[in-house]
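Contributing new complexes? Match this layout with NAI.
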Amino acid sequence: MNKIMQIFDSLDYGPAPEAPDQAIAWLDSKGRKFGHFINGLWTEPGQTFSADNPATGAPLADITNGTAADVDAAVKAARAAFPAWSGLKGYQRGKYLYAIARMIQKHSRLFAVLETMDNGKPIRESRDADIPLAARHFYHHAGWATHLEREFPDHVPYGVCGQIIPWNFPLLMLAWKIAPALAAGNTVVLKPAEFTSLTALLFVEICERVGLPKGVVNIVTGEGDTGAALVNHSDVDKIAFTGSTEVGKIIRQATAGTGKGLSLELGGKSPYIVFEDADLDSAVEGLVEAIWFNQGQVCCAGSRLLVQESIEERFIAKVKARMAKLRVGDPLDKSVDIGALVAQVQVERIRDLMKRGVAEGAVVYEPDGDIPGEGCFLKPALVTNVSPANTLVSEEIFGPVLVAMSFRTPEEAVQLANNTKYGLAATLWSENINLALDIAPKLKAGVVWINGTNQFDAAVGFGGYKESGFGREGGREGMANYLKPKWEKALKPAPALPVVTPAASPNPLDSHGLDQTAKMYIGGKQARPDSGYNRPVFGPDGKLVGEVGEGNRKDIRNSVEKARSALSWGTTAAHSRAQVLYFLAENLDYRRDEFAARLKAQTGLDGAEEVEQSIERIFAFAGWADKYDGAVHNPPMRAIAAAMVEPLGVIGIVAPDSKPLLGVSTLLASALAMGNCVVLVPSQTAPLSVTDLYQVLETSDVPAGVVNIVTGDSLSLAKTLAEHDGVDGMWFFGSAEGSTMVERASVSNLKQTWTSRGLEYDFTSSHFAGDYLLSKATQVKNVWIPYGA
Ligand code: NAI
Ligand code: MG
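Output block (do not edit by hand):
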């Protein structure tokens, strides 16, 4: 029988290799040895490491391992280029971005082949996903550059951005980082991942050919140390990182107290939920995309299958049948589904995790069939018989390994889905629109796909909840992450407040004559401090004006617990939250004289105006509660993405000493308006105005637990709050040292922080009456819904 007849007989795929010639020619033209790209010039190669093809083990080129001096030269070049680049008209920057987008499109096949050779991903994916999405990102952001002034009035770029990217989508992650940064007027120093630098180096040539001004984009290659040098460089204004949660935490620590902007896009363990009424065949195809796209090396991979018990057996059988058809092999073969993993260390890492999982009771299924004997290949795997505690369920595997569990009810599905420290993405399949739209908002993830998966677009923000990081890439939120309000950039150090010397050294027994001992306010009740001690509050003349409780860790922990149990405040209708805030403002209004007198007693200043401003501010945020809406995006596929604005959850607020009532009113009202629950530490020097709020809160229908107030030593209470894993966001107003402490302490659950760093925030300004605060109190979840014909 001849070959064609054989193929007819077996219906097997024949080889369909994509030629590597052009990519090899390009590498050869560069002598297969690269320096960095700094200030528009290639540097001489320094100490190098080898860039390898993980499918064959063949070395492709020598890459320079960047030193701290290289990083410094690149940062200097970016700094020097910044004034001219940020000074261009938006559309002029846009023109460069358009030109880059076009050039990526024009050379898309070369980029795709080079990406596949360097990374091991199937050519089908680099050709159809990575490269077109990278081009789309530059096109989209060319438009943002053009419309910047109108869409982000009075905003300025950060300056020099240090960007560190991973190896799973090398050119695409470069595009996600560079396009918005340049559109906003920043200049950049980007470090590609050590396993995959080549398309970033090819991108350099695009920059050269479109005549991008020198120093606007600098590429420094290297390993983790090179990345660390960039993070720690004192003249970098913002760090944008995508990679492991582990390194994300190191970077959070390293940038604490520096004032550098920070966005982190980290790991995930995203649930893939299949309800019994789902279109099962489509859900299987989606699952293939969710977990075997890019060999599972995807931060948002749907790596945890949660399938409803009633269809579990049927669905798993379908998955296994489909797995048997997946073709593992040469990534340059156009009909291969699963290529090579990025490097041998990743293969070993995945094998180790699998061994641990199996030792803990997991059962692993792998389909029959061969995989190449050499190169970094693994078979697709399906893991069953696992409990939520199994390593394979809790750890990000970052490989072609799917873990399956079942659930009975939708509530249980939500509970299992959210039972992870991560919160990057989630997928759900159901033919019942009511069920789908009921579940989507309950999933704690930055992206939710309904009846689809792994959809991405430049217009739609992408990023995580919880330990999957903070900040968004893409869309308006992504642009906002590369801009700052002008006034914020101009903040000056706060003048020191007058130091009050107590008239006499305070004898704890003296104060007993006062009936002014304010308690804490926890879970809607006034509570005595756990410590059993009070602390005196002095007026400006040093005379005792009252006492408040000496709060400690226990009081904070109780408050956080109460706040977490009140989180349904976030799903209360915004209209109802507005009503409660109006009521609060009104009740404060009734007692304005009393509050003014109290402010005067503590600060010596006329309090009437501050009370007036506080009432106005609470009214302002009551008004905002039902108006800070999300958006509906129309990405270029059959779907809409509903960008939903959601609260952070529990916010710890440490209030400023100056304007003690206005500061609290502003911060509290904005957090509450957006549906957050709050644990508030009032000003240490003037806490009495805030403890007087208890009665106002009680008469205003604020549900128990939504606001909790703990008085005491601001710094030690701030530390406890910042370290607490039940706190999702932390706003700290105080010294630079205190701010550094808070940012460091926030690392354990990667809570979002906003610290004043000893700078003077003028709460009377209208900047504090609107979206500046609202955006800090919220995070955006994009829910993708199939739509249209
Ligand atoms: P990684 O987080 O170490 O690498 C990401 C980037 O960070 C690379 O460019 C690397 O050179 C750089 N880097 C490493 N240490 C640094 C430091 N101290 N300061 C600054 N930059 C630093 O990830 P790695 O080691 O390549 O992969 C390990 C695991 O991390 C993977 O198996 C996977 O589980 C996870 N990962 C997750 C990614 C995601 O997008 N969610 C991407 C890459 C890895
Ligand atoms: Mg490589």
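Reviewers usually confirm one structural detail per submission. For this one: The longest strand covers residues 639-647.
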